[in-house]
Amino acid sequence: MKLIKDKKFLKNVAHYIDLTNTLGGGTVQPQVKMVKHKKEAILQVVLPGVSAEQFQVILDKNQLTVMALHQSEQHPAMQMPLFHQQFLLPPYVDFNHLQVVHEGKKLRVHIPYLPQGPRLLEIEQR
């Protein structure tokens, strides 16, 4: 068995383990909840001990990726994933008006719907 002699690395790993450890000795499970309203849906992620700077939210076409990364203070290039989840958004979402808010321990993604109902289409004459 090979021992790790890099004390800085061990300190960072210990900090990461401490970050994800709960009082009962298990790991922290993020609370992910999707609440649907009449005009929008709200995706809420609660991850204790994670700051707004650690979260990243990426929209690629209709796929929304929410992740949280822990970055080592001594080794800024070293990042460890704390949370990563992808959501497939329906086609009736107004992708141009998504809003991400971090408040307290919660990250909320407001996902507005496109206006529904019949739409009169213009007829082109050529």
TrEMBL record:
SUPFAM superfamilies: HSP20-like chaperones. It comes from the Bacteria. Gene3D superfamilies: 2.60.40.790. This is Hsp20 family protein. The lineage of its organism: Bacteria, Pseudomonadati, Bacteroidota, Cytophagia, Cytophagales.
